[in-house]
Amino acid sequence: MPEIFASGLRRAGWLAGLPALALTWASATLYAAPQIAERIEAAGAPVAAGTDTGTGEPWLRLEARGRDLLAAGEAPDVGVRDTVLTRLAALDGPRRIVSAVGLVETAAPFQWAAIRTGPDRIALEGSRPVEIGRRVLEARVTGALSPGTNLDDTARAARGAPPDFPSAAAFLAARLSGLTKGSRASLSDTVLSLSGEAVDVPAYEALRAALSDPPEGYSIGRVEILPPLVAQYRFAVEKTARGIVLDGFAPAASDLEAARREAQEAAVGTGGQVEDRLLLGRGLDPAIDPKGLIAYAFRLADLIQTGRIAFADGTISMTGDAIDGQAIPDAQALMRDARPAGVKAGAVALTARPLSPYRVTIRRTADAVTLSGHVPDARTRERILEALKPRLFREPVIDRTRLAEGAPPDLGEALAAAIPLVTGLADGAVTVSDRALTLTGESLYRESAARVPDRLAGALPPGWTGRAAVSARQPAERRDPETCRAEGAAAVAGASLRFPAGSTALTPSFYPTLDTLAALAKACPTLRLTVSGPADPAKAAPTPAAGPTPGEEAHPAAAEHAQVASAAKADVPAKADVPAKADVPAKADAPAKADAPAKADAPAKPVPSDQTAASGKPASAGGAAPGRKDAAGTGAARGDPPKKEAGKRDAVKKEPTGHGKAAAKKPADAPEEPPQDLPRLRAQAVVEYLLQAGARPDQVAPGPDGPAGPVAFALLP
């Protein structure tokens, strides 16, 4: 055996010594190396202890790596660093000194960050205040984290930290508790930022709440937190007797706001409230547009009185009571033909029941008037539209009503009574629920808003109850008299408002100045103003009073003031279009009276038709008496010959007179001369505009007639 053993050792050679060598190396590594490292660190400990700068802990950190000694930290200056490295080099234990010692610098901006690198690990980087010891700051940060979380701190001491830095660092670290791996919380001077993904819905909601209350002196900067990924994505719209309930998830904040906006609009029609249970959560199929899904769900919800529209597992379904019998096939058609891409059709379980309560709404905005709800028949619908349209200037009427039984018998009468009130508001709505009518909105004027409740109570049919909640859009502005007078003088000094020749119609150039004066009058109760209308220039070719030009129709008050001017002008007697000639032979069926001879060489004076009809007396010489016809066979006394008789008059005038003289010629289409009181009519048109725009009657009045030129304004004392 000894011979065999010896022979085996000879064949193995030096390999036989490897196990013994490995054992020796392991012993040295496991037992001797730690002892050597401890001795090296212990040798450098006095040097590190001498680097305390008043923070309670030394800035020098030593770590033994084998027989090498690693020195790290931030020295106050170069001299201190060199002194410390020299002392370390003089130690007997370390084989060599590896220096990672830096210098304390001023960081601008001062930046610090905490990064989640694992479920129970946080890395700190950037700069930390030199005034605060590393261990003190780490203890503050660790206290804000979940128990058992470890820190990897590589932050370097620097000057320039913002006030109360430890509180901001702890606030940011605490936010990382609800975020997944890779999330980052950072500070740049006094601005706090966050990025990452929430671990679940409660953590996301808690994070949103916490960000609304940052530490004092700090603000929230960029926040890029993804909502959590939910296992089962769902979305639901429920209609109840109390209003709208939103439930489920929305992928982004913009989708959340879109759903809430749709719910608010739907709740207005029912008079209910919105209960919001929506949460932010991801998990919707990328092929489905979230906003399209939300809009589609509310389209279906419009067809139910009460019930639920639910989306889950990629399928949308609806249950509940339909708004009317027509809604069931409408819902089936929407489910079949109008689903968003990626959405599957689910069940449509609707029942048709009598409407309770019976609702209809008329909503007025600056852009349109919208009818929604139900009416009993087409006749009631037409009655409502006929009452609306004459009261609107240019706003379109959008009819979204549906036919359904069960309406109060006098529904049309009640709505017709409320229409003048709602159309007189700047913004508002009339809502009917059975026999209860509610009027809400805003009026441009406080006085009008105060009169609405009494007018509504007196207009409703018997058996109806009415409630009005109308407020003034803006509180009355008041300015001191000196400012009012200065602004009024500036407004009229720069005004150059000119009427077209012979016209009393305001042109678009009037509106900016008049609107400014009206607004000033409302803010200045003591302001008094007179308006002097101008005459036309002498020898100017008369032009007929023109209606509003196309440009005038763009102003909301143009049509109304054109009517005012026309009505004022109608009060002035008009001249006859064609004066009658005494030497023109009358037709046989209309002989002239013997006691009314006409002059042979001069046209008769025209007699205004309204004066002739009012007095019942014959016209002056050359004019036709009441009931008589002139030579052309028309009622000249009325001043309104038909156009097709114009040719006959011209033919008669071209014939020679009985005295052998040629009759004076006058074209049938000669323009009408402007009235003699044209300045007064022009001043009245301007005054009416200012009154309609908000000025009080005691603030604006016509002044003396002015000469040719622009409209003249005068401020009274």
Automatic annotation (TrEMBL):
Span list, region Disordered: 535-717
Region forming the signal peptide: none
Extent of Low complexity compositional bias: 535-571, 599-623, 697-717
Biased composition (Basic and acidic residues): 572-598, 640-658
Name of this protein: BON domain-containing protein
Protein source organism: Methylobacterium longum
